[in-house]
Amino acid sequence: MKILVCITNVPDTTAKISFTDNNTKFNKAGVQYIIGPYDDYALARAVELKEAQGGTITVLHVGEADSDPQIRKALAIGADDAIRVNTEPADSYYVATQIAHIAQQNSYDLILMGRESIDFNSGVVHGLVGEMLGIPSFSPVMKLDIKDGKAEFAREIDGGKEYLEATLPLVLGCQEPIAEWKIPNMRGIMTARTKPLQVVEPVSVDDMTSLESYSLPAPKGECKMIPVEEAEKLITLLRTEAKVL
Amino acid sequence: MTDFFNIDELLTEENRLIRQTVAEFTNNEIKPIIEEYAQKAEFPAYLVRRFGELGLLGTTLPEAYGGGGADSISYGLVCQEIERGDSGMRSTISVQSSLVMGPIYRYGSEEQKKKYLPRLASGELLGCFGLTEPDYGSNPAGMKSRFTDVGDHFILNGSKTWISNAPLADVAVVWARNPEGRVQGLILERGMEGFTTPEIKNKWSLRTSATGELVFDHVKVPRQNILPKGLGISAPLSCLDNARYGIAWGAIGAAIDCYETAVKYAGERIQFDKPIGAFQLTQKKLAEMLTEITKAQLVAWRLGTLKNSGKATTAQISLAKRNNVAMALQVARECRQILGGMGITGEYPIMRHLMNLESVITYEGTHDIHLLILGAEITGIPAFK
To answer: Which of A40, A168, A203, B123 is most buried, with most CB under 10 Å away?
Structure first.
């Protein structure tokens, strides 16, 4: 089984977010980057499937060279080789086009990625890739098994879980608890340096979006406790202070 | 992670990944449980297997024997990140890697290496290192333990004390006088007749690490259990060089954990209507701590590069161990002051680190002995002989 795992390179969840150039650029200074946590789960499940059933895992990342440490980490966790599309990703459509282009050349049985990145959180790349390749896609997948060339999986839906079965190839957006979260061991780290990391140039994609500016959410306000018997006061405050009604 | 001089930039990509990985492990698997084990004075024995799974035992030894094949800076970073969790856990890794696997690799026969190293690397076996005796601590060359040759085996008599991991160890690398009177290593296994490992209880320091004695009462040691290479006191002392090197890095981890805890606390604790971090005396403490941590990080990094190229000397390692542990102890004390009464509780890691470091400053060459090693290096006149 050939598995492609797509990973994002995102700021650590504890990073302080700020912007530069008149709020048009994210300030990367001092920010620690990590593999997107949902992608981490996708990769962990891919490694479990490979350990149980054999096969190969290719890691794919659309991004610039500063993502290489995260790609090496994915190789250290258990991927066999990696491809980096050397470009600054513009938007979800752009990224999906690059992924689909790579996938078309290599015919993977399974394309796994996180349900969404944790920086822009669009959560649509898996669906777009599926459409571009003409194969089914599902998200968010929280359980996955492969039996006799078929995928048996569970997807989270409002108020419950949906159990599905589909033939391969498939694109799946993953989330916990699809696999046991993994950290690389020393041997994996030492062998990762000799695993191939192929850098390819992007295919051209028409600009479909443009960035106007970034803004931070309003700072967290002071917590006010309103007794139940003063519910009217709560409504007034929500209208006049919080301005959400 | 406190890295004021961007020392991370001086590391290789592998070094950085190892540091991040071990940091994640410490945050997820050591920090959440360690306070409870320290309060109970219990060794979390299950973690030895986890250390093995992650490749933290024998990090620098060749992969053919189950080691990690990594460089000395990687080993230092492992020690730093584990000791950010607890000095007792780092002690377990130091002893297993530098003082048990190290001498078997350097002084053992091929059969001994194949028999013991992979199982020690995986954490299947826990090891300990017997050098210190009740009457010979800073002066190990005076040791009394000895073994005699009785034909098809040796008979070992004597005792060792202050041995980390002793009460639970499956294997002990023990140093004793051979029939010619020279110091030589032997590999003992739990269960050998006459070999016991009583625990030293009621410690107020390194409470997550089991410490004990090794008692040898006419222990029959098979001939194949003697370490054939490495005769003389310099053999165990060179193993200590490796362990001390790891301690020089490890102490930085304990200091960083204290410092980061104090910075956070100083920003949150309000007195006189403002955070205590707004007061000059608190800022002075924090600024001086950051300065000392940064200096220690630079010393450790440079020592690591020397060690990678095989040039680190015993005296350089003494300087680094002595400086960095004293720095960490001072940082822990200052942080304890910043946290006030909260600093003595198990709610925060400060007092545990502080008590641990009181051992770390004494074991593997006391603070004063390292000073005298430097004194001998400077003057050419050893003051301790």
So the answer is: A40
Chain centre distance of CA B298: 20
Q: What pTM was estimated for this model as a whole?
A: 0.90
DSSP letters of B83-145?
A: HHH-HHHHHHHHIIIIIIIHHHHHHS-HHHHHHHHHHHHTTSS-EEEE--BTTBSS-GGG---
Q: What span, in angstroms and rounded, lies between the C-alpha atoms of B359 and A46?
A: 45
CB pair distance less than 8 Å for B21 and A183 = yes
Q: What does the alpha-carbon distance between residue A114 and residue A133 come to, in Å, rounded to a whole number?
A: 18
Give, as one character, the DSSP assignment of residue A137: E
Residue B364 annotated as catalytic = yes
Tell me which chain B residues have a C-beta less than 8 angstroms from the C-beta of A190. 14, 63, 68-70
Contact A68 B13 (CB under 8 A): yes
Residue type at B168 in one-letter notation? L
* Residues B211/B142, Cβ–Cβ less than 8 Å: no
CB within 8 Å: A190 and B70 = yes
Query: What is the rounded (10 degree) CA torsion for A76, A82, A84, A90?
Result: -80
The answer to the question of residue B366 being in a domain is: yes
Residues of A in contact with B14 (CB under 8 A): 189-190, 192-193
Give domain status of residue B75, yes or no: yes
Q: Is the peptide bond before B228 cis (omega within 30 degrees of 0)?
A: no
B186 falls within a domain = yes
How many domains in chain B?
3
pLDDT in the model for residue A241: 84
**Predicted pLDDT at A90:** 87
| Nearest chain B Cα distance for residue A172, angstroms | 27
Residue B63 touches chain A, beta carbons under 8 Å: yes
Q: What is the three-class DSSP state of B213? A: strand
Parts of chain B with a pLDDT under 70? none
Beta strand B127-130 pairing with B171-177: parallel
CB contacts under 8 A, A 52-71 vs B, are 68-69
User: Is B306 exposed, middle or buried (CB count within 10 Å of its CB: 0-12, 13-18, 19+)?
Assistant: middle
Q: Give me the domain span that covers residue B206.
A: 127-225
CB pairs under 8 A between A and B: 49
The reply to whether B267 falls in a domain is yes
Nearest to B383 by CA among B368, B366, B364: B368
Contact check, Cβ <8 Å, A189/B69:
no
What is the reported pLDDT for B278?
Answer: 98
| CATH code of the domain made up of A2-212 | 3.40.50.620
> Which of the 8 DSSP states describes residue B29?
I
pLDDT digits (tens, 9 = 90+) for B26-71: 999 999 999 999 999 999 999 999 999 999 999 999 999 999 999 9
Chain B residue at shortest CA distance from A183: B21
Half-sphere exposure of A241 (CA within 13 A, CB side): 11
Judge whether B64 is closer than 8 Å to chain A, CB to CB.
no
Burial of B260 (0-12, 13-18, 19+ CB in 10 A): middle
Q: Are residues B362 and B252 in the same domain?
A: yes
Task: Say how far apart CA A52 and CA A63 lie, in whole Å.
Answer: 31
